[in-house]
Structure prediction request, 812 residues.
Amino acid sequence: MPLFRPTYWSGFILSAGLALASMAGAAAAQTLTIAQGNDILSLDPANHGNNSTESALVNIYEYLVDKDFSQGQLRFTPRLARSWSTEDNVRWTFKLRDDVLWHNGDRFTAADVKFTIERAQQDKKLINASKFRRIKSVEAPDDTTVVIETDRPDTLLLHYFVGNGAGILPKAAFEKAGGKEEFFKKPVGTGPYVFEQWIKSDQVILSRNPRWWGGTPKWDKVVIRSIPETTTRVAELLTGGVDIAVNIPPEDIARLNDNKGTRAITFDIARNIALHVRTGKDRVTGDPKLREAIDLAIDRDAIVKQVLEGHGKPTRGFFPPAIPGFAPDLNTNIRFDPERAKALLKEAGFDGRKRPAIKISTPSGRYVKDREIVEAVGGYLEDVGFRVQVEVLDWTVYNSRLAGDGFGELYLWGMGSYTDASSIFVQDFKRHYDWSDPAFEDLARKAGNAKTEAERIALSQQAQKIVAEQRVRIGLLLPQSIYGVSDRVVYDGRFDEMIAAEDVGRP
Amino acid sequence: MTKRSPLRALLQFVPVLYIVSLVVFVLVYLTGDPSALLIPEDASEADRLALITAWGLDQPWYTQYLHYMANILSGDFGVSYRYGTDALPVVLERIPATLTLTAGGLVVAILIALPTGIFAALRRNSLPDFAISAVTVLGKAMPNFWVGIMLILIFGVWLRLVPVSGSGGFAHLILPAMTLGTGFAAELTKLIRSSLLEVMGQDYIRTARAKGVPETLVVLRHGLRNALIPALTMTSLHAIALLGGALVTETVFSWPGLGQLVVQAVYVKDMAVIQIAVFVITIMALTINLATDALYRLIDPRLRH
Prediction:
């Protein structure tokens, strides 16, 4: 291992004089530069739990199937698999493309798919080690056929083949490299772009894959930069240093639209913001009446309009409409009734002189306007008679509190990156919220064994209603994502927030 | 200041490094395990526990620590939880960027402070001296974060003279080095001015003047040389602080130095990376101390023995 990377120093010296010159034509027409808010965590698709990392990796590796939200609801479209079929949701047959080459020239076959699944199952240190836990066996009877069996009927199988951990890896190249450490120094995928270099905390550089099965990729070079400071990200976009900048605060939209050559785009994403409620008997939120009062006291419409400047939708639920199994009524039947909330407080024995004390915790800057949303919620709760303490925590501390269940009555949580509403069953409600409900647990059991997609969807919709009615989670809003985009490129954003360079066009 | 052999100085650092590693280990351990920060949002409790077991995080802290120290003695510095790779190169590859930025910041500070400080001392209580005093107070009062963003807006966005952020070329270094350098330049200017004034009142300066040595030579050869000792001390202390990572400046300019790495590592309790970074920073601090000692002796012959 070299003590100092020579590339760093030589690049520094070589580019010293060139940097100023190259500034003028930053995007040398064929280079796409994307600014993310953080660096990628890993080049190993199975070893990260991070959206922006996956957003970079989708250009290098490919999934068996693609998730397509362009029609308003998730559907799976062919990618490395041309087609797939199952009769019982237990035994699945995938027919693969036969014209795919790895970046090193090897041919992609069914053995690679088998390898990818089994590697994730066997290496317990991988962050996505549990991704394929329901898969009992994988067979590759010939080069273009993969047969997968699950432990019991599983209508979510296709969901395992998209998202974090789903990128298919090359068996031969991986084994030849002699382990993951070596392989991921210069990883090989099948995607439209080839990995060139990763300068940590700075940028990932990719180049065009001339042998891509899907045709000639649009860009010669793709640079994915990590720019944590929002002001800097915006400045880079304004000066033409980057073509797309993610996570723009609502207050910068006008500035980007007024500037010549840039614009802001907003679009729906797979995320929801909710208050999670601790319902133990030792807390005031143990009383269902007070939980209902909280739900009714919040003017979600006003929060969306004022805090998010309209870039979101109010909801009582937990999933946007594009997610299979979302409960439609929860996005429409939203009541704001402070008078009823006050009455409920009275019924619960709080007459105005004695006020129920509530602590709401929030991170700051993790989700769009998280702290401001909680401050607004706190104001509404004060209005109907609660005594509110808002606690703003650093993200690390926030996560430790979550893991150790150290929060007060309410805390803000932004679930995201899901592809199905049955993810409502994943969390341990007893542990996190001190809440259990026989009907809900029954639904969870049944959902794990659902034989058809329709059955699974019906079960998770019922579960969401129970959670919303009992106010274990109080849905607040569905935020939109805001990107800054240069006029040099054509881009509208994607629901899953993946920025595939092939989706970005030139005017 | 006694003369120390560099080797002995290095050896004295072994127990220090050991204690530092133990303290860091216990502190990080006490804040909980990293699993919750590593796993995907939709992972279940069972997934989290499986990860904890796989990484050996379910062991008591002393077992983990002994295991860790045994590995270090055999040359294995551990694996970064966050990056899933060997932690040593993860830290070492940040050093060039950190050294570049530190050097850049110091050069800017010295280039500003040295002439300004001398000028202010020579024109003591004049209008320019008061003006310099006012500017240094302002320079010290402006937070790095704000200076950085102002520099970006003026030189990057408005004048378009230099790149806004990132690393790679000399042009990229200009704004972060100015951000780091200006604050320190303010401090250093004041120090050079006051120590030069103090030295200029000494007997040997009067002797030099009485011998008819030209004033410029008196200041540069006899005055400045002695006035530089405190400035050197302050610069070396500042360099050590910068080598530990200039987090704010690195974040504003997305500069890939140690500061960003260490803070991210602390966020996810990436033990191996934190430990190595602390080792590396400690060793760099020691090196600077030794180099400063050598410079003292070079500047001031009285310290040679």
